[in-house]
Amino acid sequence: MKDINIKSSTIEKGLELAKEFLGKLLGPSFEEVGLLVSENIKYFRFKNQIRILNKAQKYIESRNISTKQIPVKILVPLLENASLEENENLQDKWANMISNMADSESNLQNHVFPYILGQISIEEFTGLEKLHENEKHHFILFQRINNRKKSGELLNLEDNKIKNELENNEEEGFYVSLEEYELANLIRLGLIKKLPPKIYIEEFKTGGSGFGSTENWHKIKAKYEPHSSYHRITELGNQFIQLCSKTK
């Protein structure tokens, strides 16, 4: 086999082309990120970690949270993932996650949560957050109707409207304003679930019931109508949102 001879000038030219291309991809942040220089990468990630840790400390102090240690197995990958986040809103979520995991009254220390937060966009998080709020409202209404029934009270007109709304939510779920691929990602992560499609059966007549009447038979056709944008949040999704929120 012949030796491969790569001239230093060829490597340098390739490096310059790569830098130029990365500059177009990154825009103004290229100089700060400096992906081809390891020290710049470390500095960029370190700044994000410091910013997020300071936010977490401020959150803990403002709420007088009694803290406990976070296992290294969880904290190290958490900080690694958080250090790559540029979006300030999501940085707040990372800070909240650290604070809630450090809360001595919390039992939500699990390595899966940092992984999930590192896998979703701010748009997906916002959609999940709205779905969580809808589920909370649904539960409050359910408790109201259930308590009325337990106490033996008759349901008034407003209660019956709420009851119908609850039944509709249970059957269809809640609308989530996200793209199909974003919904697919939330499903992949186990944060939301799609409800089974509705099944409609066409009406049919069996004929009269009087003397001498004959029955008319019709084929029964089932039609499935999936609601691609209607979903329910899972228990994992609820726990995830709580961990990323200011709970006190």
**Overall spatial form:** flat
Number of helices: 10
Q: Low-confidence parts lasting 5 or more residues at pLDDT below 50? A: none
* Major sheet attributes: 3 strands, antiparallel
Number of strands: 5
Strand order of the largest sheet: 1-5-2
Rg (C-alpha, Å): 28 Å
The secondary-structure element order is HHHHHHHHEHEEEEH
Percent in helix: 55-70%
| Class based on secondary structure composition and strand pairing | mainly alpha
Can you tell me about this structure?
With 248 residues, this protein is mostly helical. It has 2 domains: 17-118, no CATH class; 123-200 and 223-243, no CATH class. Helices cover 58% and strands 7% of the residues. It has 10 helices and 5 strands; from the N terminus they run ααααααααβαββββα. The strands form 2 sheets. Strands 1-5-2 form a 3-stranded antiparallel β-sheet. Helix 3 (38-62) packs across helix 5 and helix 7 packs across helix 8. The radius of gyration is 28 Å and the shape is flat. The protein starts with 7 loop residues before the first helix and ends in a 5-residue tail after the last helix. The model has no long low-confidence stretch (mean pLDDT 79).
